[in-house]
Amino acid sequence: MQFDEMGNREGKTLFLFPGTACDYQTNFGTVLDKLGEKYHLVCVNYDGFDGSGKTFSSVLEVTEKIERYIQENYGGKIDGAIGSSLGSTFVGQLIQRQNIHMDHGIFGSPDLDQSGKFSAWLQSKLVVPLLTSFTKSDKKKQKTREKLKNFFDMNDETADRFMACFEKFSPETIRNEYYTDLLTWLDDDIHVEHTKVHFIYANKMGEKYLKRYKKYFRDPEIREFDMQHEQWLFGQEKYAAPVLKAIDEFMETPV
């Protein structure tokens, strides 16, 4: 596990949890400087994504390591955390388990998929080979690059950065991350006193995700944005600026 601390050491503490098959440098690379102007950032790379040579084991084991770090370094309490996509599972588990306390849990347009073992196994058998095949030839690299640029409105630099993630992490690590995420369930109607839950809702994902957010958490604050999944992280100021403004407002909400 890797915990890199940066940004404004006098500001509120904000943990950043990256999404599927990503390290924080790729996932949050376009907004780290901006977030760091105001917040004391703790940027997390999970086992298998931290350069240690270890393999990602399970979402719950990684959650336990995050809890220990917060207990040992922050007295068990932090100001906030942002989870990008799958990274939101860690935000949800930290809130639900109540082994540490966070004032603000910010969910970055997650799908919050959950399933049984057979379905998780089948999905991982289908999805992981697809993710790890994107960069196996120059032709596939070029095709993937153009799809990322066209669908997410990425610039060249950001598209190249995300493509590099698909080939630098082991298939086993990506498979374990994807598979155990599906098996890591959230309760319905989660509510923890003095914790505010906030969702960045990318409306182009579809309303079924909006229903999930309301199902798993009691009275979450949901901000809707006209964008694709996590598009605010892909290098375009027109998407990033309003979301960064919302994060500032989330973090200032009384708990």
Features:
10 helices; Rossmann fold; 255 residues; 7 strands; seven-stranded mixed beta sheet; alpha/beta; single chain; 47% helix; globular
Describe the protein in words.
By secondary structure, the protein is α/β, with parallel strands linked by helices. It has a domain at 2-112 and 186-252: Alpha/Beta hydrolase fold, catalytic domain (Rossmann fold). 47% of the residues lie in helices and 18% in strands. The protein is built from ten helices and seven strands. It has helices at 24-27, 32-38, 59-74, 87-97, 117-133, 138-152, 156-168, 171-182, 207-216, 237-252; strands spanning 2-7, 13-17, 40-45, 77-84, 101-108, 196-202, 221-225. Strands 1-3-2-4-5-6-7 form a seven-stranded mixed β-sheet, with helices on both faces. α4 links the parallel β4 and β5 (101-108). α5 (117-133) runs antiparallel to α8. The longest helix is centred in the middle third of the chain and has 17 residues, at 117-133. The mean pLDDT is 93.
Helix/strand order = EEHHEHEHEHHHHEHEH
Count of DSSP H/I helices: 10
Cross-sheet strand order for the largest sheet = 1-3-2-4-5-6-7
* CATH class placement of the domain at 2-112 and 186-252: Alpha Beta
Structural class: alpha/beta
Overall shape: globular
Q: CATH topology of the domain at 2-112 and 186-252, which one? A: Rossmann fold
Helix-residue proportion: 40-55%
Number of strands: 7
Alpha-carbon distance between the two ends: 30 Å
Q: Strand content of the residues, in percent?
A: 15-25%
Main beta-sheet annotation = 7 strands, mixed
The fourth-level CATH homologous superfamily of the domain at 2-112 and 186-252 is Alpha/Beta hydrolase fold, catalytic domain
C-alpha Rg (nearest Å) = 17 Å
> Any idea what the CATH architecture of the domain at 2-112 and 186-252 is?
3-Layer(aba) Sandwich
Q: Average pLDDT, to the nearest integer?
A: 93
In the predicted model, the low-confidence regions spanning at least 5 consecutive residues are none
